[in-house]
Amino acid sequence: MPIYEIIHTGRVPVYVYTDTLDHSSRQQLMNVATLPFIFKHVAAMPDVHAGRGAVIGSVIPTQGAVIPAAVGVDIGCGMQAVKLDMKATVLEQQAEALQHAIEEAVPHGRTHQGGAMDRGAWQRVPPALQSYWATFGLPQQLPDVLKRHPKLLHDRVNGERHLGTLGTGNHFIELCLDENRQVWLMLHSGSRGIGNRIGTYFIEWARQEMGSRLKQLPDPDLASLQEGTAAFADYVSCVAWAQGFAKANRTFMRQAILATLADCLGTPVAIVGEVIDCHHNTMEREQHFKQSVWVTRKGAIRARKTDLGIVPGSMGAKSYIVRGRGNPQTFCSSAHGAGRVMSRGEAKRRFSKADLEQQTAGVTCRKDAAVLDEIPAAYKDIHTVMAQQADLVEILHTLKQLVCVKG
Length: 407
Description:
By secondary structure, the chain is of the alpha+beta class. The chain has one domain (5-341, 379-406): tRNA-splicing ligase RtcB (Alpha-Beta Complex). The protein is built from 12 helices and 17 strands. The protein has helices at 23-33, 68-71, 88-93, 95-105, 127-136, 138-141, 143-148, 192-210, 230-265, 344-350, 353-359, 382-388, and strands at 5-7, 14-16, 42-49, 56-62, 65-66, 78-84, 172-177, 183-189, 225-226, 271-279, 281-288, 291-298, 300-302, 308-311, 318-324, 333-335, 393-406. It has a 7-stranded antiparallel β-sheet with strand order 10-6-8-7-17-15-14. It has a 6-stranded mixed β-sheet with strand order 1-2-3-4-12-11, with helices on both faces. It has a two-stranded antiparallel ribbon with strand order 5-9. The two termini are 35 Å apart.
């Protein structure tokens, strides 16, 4: 489908790829479009919904500055998917056992206020994760940044204890079948507590650097860091590191899950084809319209013609493996999922456990009140999202989950 609407109220236009844009999202898009360093235009994906400062489901190109709150606090959050040489009948017959085995193998959720006894973190970090952290951890990779920002890390920030863990909210692990009854493993997570700390820290740093100019912004969460400053360089370095941590986090989970499947089934489970991995909370330097720009994708994936991507639905809907079409008007981007249509609190007020059971029929997953905020009705219809971005991506495979593990 073409662009549904162009908003012209800001310094640059906003290209909107949906016909359902709520008032809060519209205002946030208009706010971003007023900023002096936005390049050419802003793009709003079909899954757009309100976020902190900038909407989730937006692509924000900039020159000379970046907005930490637009990148967000789950830096590098994204998806990984692999096709497996596993029989569909085995998955169908052992779904419940596989769900419990995955839950045992991968720490998930959050307890003890994220403290020492948090069930979502490792109590004893596996050797492979210790080795990764010893080489690629933030203190090892960016020691000078930590010298300049000694308060960036503190005792309650989980680093290696969160590596290879799922998290909470909409993060998930799924076993799915595609249109040919091929089994897929798909998972969704990011840079966990340490990425959250980096994002939170530099959002506040940007506010402080702006000083009295902060009052001139339509939203204080649009505070920016100016290119050429030490803080900008440190933030860019930390974002790049967090994106690497997020990808490693997904990879370690995938390896643990494959080992668990092999133990359960009594036979190795191999990957068929390539590993698909895509970030959807990122900031990267790219070339667009013959210019070098910083592209912030807040709840959007890169979708160049060479890019494979993953666009998941809710825990009761289908998901898609896609190939980008390289659409220049979105700065080669697409939606990252279904997108919420209501807050977590509203979902819990509006729906019951019986509603959740009905909407996740046929899926082996938690169906208790604690995950009501993830009920499918709290999200947009993924089929509509995909129809609205037909110009942005080509659908390669359609996946339907049989097992879903939530944080």
